[in-house]
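Lecture 7 notes: from sequence to structure.
We start with the chain below.
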Amino acid sequence: MIEEELLRDAFARHEEQAPPLDPLRRAIDALATRRRRRRTATRTGAAAVAVAIALAVPVQLWRGGVADYVAAIGVESSVVAPEGPLNLLLLGLDQRGDMGEARSDTIMLVHLPADGTAAYLISIERDVAVEIPGEGRRKINGAYTAGGAQGARQAVERLTGVSVDAVAEVKFSALREVTDALGGLPVCLPQRVTSHHTGKVYPAGCQGYTGTQVADLVRQRWGGLAHGAYDRDRIGQRVLLGLVKKAGDRALLSDFAMVSRLVSTPGITLHTGDLSLLGLAVRLDRVDAAHIVGVSQPTFLPVTYGGFPFEKLDPQVAPKLFAALRDDTMNDFISTHPDWVLQE
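Predicted structure tokens for the same chain:
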């Protein structure tokens, strides 16, 4: 079948450890039948889709039914979910024009604590000043321009002191296509946003948005946003939460054609290193979708170097955030710094 060929090709691009297709199809059909009889609560099957697009579309194949799938293809003994805390780096790439340099204008660490019950979305503002070897002091989004995904990964590791276990590169065009494939996304905005690029007005409250609108929204840092790029980062977190909700509303595993379409989306590149993709999906499936927490610096701290404007991290609180990531104590951090937490 054409759909099966597309799915096989998509997995081949992502990882050699992709599971065999025929058992996957049987598992999907069997699981879909069971789910028509009973609806289960959404964990991060939904979150895995969201962690989004990140870990990215391939993880959707095991949404909310990892144990069932693993049992169906008979690989229980070979699938080992990684233990301990994990840090997954999500890079949202903005590339204007065919020949323009791609910039990682969205930089987000997805922290999975060792207890497996939550996920923390830690946004790093793109204008934060960092030292890039061979480049000098640059904005952190320039690390991707200079060294690709590996350069961005190293810059984040130097800044935070944490080890990044996997990286996902997602072009805004891919976000647009996935959103449309899912029939739009619900996004909840705390205030009205006017697009600096299109003039489109996005009202406060929860609305359904198309792929074009979502791709426009995640680029906004003006349009009445008091905290500029920090507010844009929080919009990106809200889009991921919208992906979680949408994934919970749809029985994606029962729609093989949709799965094929999503994993074939161009513009998504996943670097898992030594992690097994299936093992990572098993780990993500443990997360409770209600326990996904957005974290970001609440206000501007502008600074100038060499006559150029940059952002700097809060010298009092940011080190505590990075220590909490390293020590796997993020729950304590958000309890003591609620102003850094995304508000519903």
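Points to note: The first strand starts at residue 86 and ends at 94. The domain at 2-334 is CATH 3.40.630.190 (Aminopeptidase).
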